[in-house]
Design a protein that fits this description.
The protein has 242 residues and is of the alpha/beta class. The chain is built from eight helices and 15 strands. About 5% of the residues have low confidence.
Length: 242
């Protein structure tokens, strides 16, 4: 199920960064950009008159800094800080910001930040259209060709790397995304998936049988890489004992 509509604004005084953020936002149907501003003062009037859920907030701004401005905001407004200075990360996380992104902002890094925001909102039960069962199901957003898809982890059978792409197999579909297995592992919760081969990443609970050379998922036999064999068997044996 698609998240409820999220009203957001950009507060950014660097034009290239502002344009890039707007382009990223436009790729999500549920993100509604309500305005772009070059300073916190310019954004205040809109924040007083409209309900804004999420801010993309630069830290280095003319006048009041993004950090100072964030301290004055209601706790229910999500903040994703953007800056070119990594030294500001500690300040950003002390304010319990959703995320902190370094410029220039890639779409992959932007997508990761949106994933974080959606998970926080789901946990806080602020997506009223989601049922309790759906809120308990972890998910990720993945860019597939020109679409950004929401995939529930329990629907994924396995991942397969092919060149510069990653194939995501589900019960009824196969999706192709331009990223590596390593990048995907960073998005996934720990303990649910395991890399068994240079080219294969599997959900542990979907394994129906295994031996030292392969695992089986829904009658699909996947090879275990030689370098991954010992760690994979140990992982699967530990998982079975849980």
């Amino acid at each position: 199920m698609t998240p409820t509509r999220i009203n957001c604004i950009i507060i950014e005084d660097e034009l290239p960064a502002s344009i890039l953020l707007e382009m990223h936002i436009a790729k999500f149907d549920f993100l509604e950009l309500k305005g772009k501003f070059t300073s916190t003062n310019n954004a205040l009037n809109l924040l007083k008159t409209q309900k804004i859920d999420l801010l993309f907030l630069d830290i280095n701004l003319p006048g009041k800094s993004g950090i100072e401005f964030a301290k004055s905001l209601p706790k229910d407004i999500g903040i994703i800080f953007t800056t070119a200075n990594p030294q500001h990360a500690v300040d950003g996380f002390e304010l319990e910001a959703v995320d902190y992104i370094l410029k220039p902002i890639s779409f992959e890094r932007f997508l990761k930040a949106i994933n974080k925001y959606c998970k926080v909102q789901t946990t806080n039960q602020q997506f009223e259209q989601l049922t309790q069962a759906e809120m308990e199901q972890p998910f990720i957003f993945v860019k597939c060709e020109r679409k950004t898809l929401k995939l529930y982890l329990n629907e994924i059978d396995y991942f397969e790397s092919q060149g510069n792409y990653l194939l995501i197999y589900t019960e009824n579909d196969c999706f192709k995304t331009h990223q590596s297995i390593t990048e995907m592992i960073e998005k996934l919760p720990e303990g649910l998936f395991y890399r068994i081969h240079r080219s294969f990443l599997i959900p542990l609970k979907k394994v129906t049988q295994f031996n030292s050379r392969s695992v089986t998922i829904k009658n699909k036999v996947l090879p275990i890489g030689r370098l991954y064999s010992t760690s994979t068997i140990n992982c699967l044996q530990s998982f079975v004992k849980k």
